[in-house]
Design goal:
Layout: H1 26-44, E1 70-72, E2 81-83, E3 88-96, E4 111-115, E5 118-120, E6 122-127, E7 132-139, H2 148-160, E8 167-173, E9 177-184, H3 187-194, H4 205-219, E10 224-231, H5 242-249, E11 256-261, H6 270-281, E12 287-288, H7 296-308, E13 311-316, E14 326-333, E15 341-343, E16 347-349
């Protein structure tokens, strides 16, 4: 499924492969072929040698204009510019009241953020309208076959709720994880990728999540990152452990994870439920456990609403950081009258040399 040294790879080395297996390496091979052919041509003939374009079964990302380092929104906080800076910790948060209703009218002064128990100064704030990089990871194991039609409809509903500038990719995973469509806004391409159903084999969910996080880290031009995982079974084939995938998700400014665990046979084991709940909630996301397929579309609507109702709160840590150390985050919101609950990531690991900071 993943490529590493000596047959065993670390989480940092894992990636999701495209259909065709070696498509990730084709650009390098293509360049090497050009250099070799150019040398042969110089030595043997003055006539240019034509080299055919490499082909791949994987769907390439859409070609987009270069994403600027800043995104401004003249409709909110005039003059404010949202900057991507590696030293800033960025929190994506939703706020609900004691009746579990979204609270969307708060300002910067309504929030206080603590890291390792120490109050931090908020350096940037806005209500969420920045573009989103969304990865949709669908379990492609054998038990999912009768469920895929409704799952695909729900996934497309989430795509339909996207806005200009969003980019979505699709991963189908079983024993292996395949990037069946790279970043795009083209609904037709996404639909085709979701319909690549080859349900068989086991469920390597943790490996797929780590591969998707790596894909976001290495290739996403967008700062806001979301992963949605839909599965109906426990992880039974990953090389990665639960602790490894949790730590990967808790990298600085890592993605928010939403998960939908469909019932299989009687019910999910309590430990499986808790694993998905922990992975999601530690990143500021939510784990859903619908009792029937008919609930999946409404869940997709809830996720789309949450994504569009988030506050973006940034701060630069005043704490000393040691590579690999965990830093706990507590974000509080207060409107002066109601008890409010904030859902955001609960902490992050300081960057290590050679990894995404």
């Amino acid at each position: 499924m993943f490529t590493g040294v000596g047959g065993k790879e670390s989480g940092a080395d894992r990636f999701i492969r495209s259909r065709g297996g070696i498509s990730r390496f084709l650009p390098c091979l293509f360049l090497l072929c050009l250099l070799i052919l150019a040398g042969v041509s110089s030595a043997q003939s003055s006539n240019p040698t034509s080299v055919p374009e490499p082909s791949s079964n994987a769907q390439a990302p859409d070609v987009n204009p270069q994403t600027p380092d800043t995104v401004s929104n003249p409709g909110e906080e005039p003059g404010f510019v949202f900057k991507r800076e590696v030293e800033e910790v960025v929190l994506h948060a939703i706020v609900v009241n004691d009746q579990n209703r979204l609270v969307t009218g708060l300002g910067r002064d309504n929030f206080q953020v603590y890291e390792d128990g120490k109050l931090q100064k908020v350096t940037s704030f806005r209500k969420e309208r920045v573009p989103v990089a969304l990865g949709i990871l669908i379990d492609n194991s054998g038990s999912m076959l009768p469920k895929r039609a409704k799952v695909n409809e729900a996934a497309l509903q989430l795509v339909d709720a996207s806005q200009e500038g969003d980019r979505v990719f699709v991963v189908n995973f079983g024993d292996d994880a395949f990037l069946d469509q790279d970043y795009t806004q083209d609904v037709g391409k996404l639909k085709a990728a979701l319909q690549r159903v080859e349900t068989r084999g086991s469920t390597a969910l943790y490996d797929a999540v780590i591969g998707a996080v790596n894909h976001l880290d290495r290739s996403s031009p967008l700062q806001k990152k979301i992963l949605l995982v839909v599965t109906d079974g426990r992880d039974n084939a990953s090389q990665a452990t639960f602790q490894e995938v949790l730590r990967k998700l808790q990298s600085k400014n890592g993605p928010v994870l939403y998960s939908i665990a469909l019932e299989q046979n009687d019910r999910h084991d309590a430990a499986d439920r808790q694993s998905l709940r922990t992975l999601s909630e530690q990143t500021g996301g939510t784990a859903f456990f619908p009792s029937s397929l008919d609930e999946v579309q409404s869940i997709a609507s809830t996720i789309a609403r949450d994504i569009r109702s988030q506050y973006v709160i940034g701060y630069r840590s005043s704490n000393a950081h040691t590579a690999g150390a965990y830093h706990a985050i507590q974000l509080q919101a207060n409107d002066g009258s109601n008890r409010l609950r904030v859902e955001t990531r609960t902490g992050y690991y300081s960057g290590q040399e050679g990894s995404a900071k």
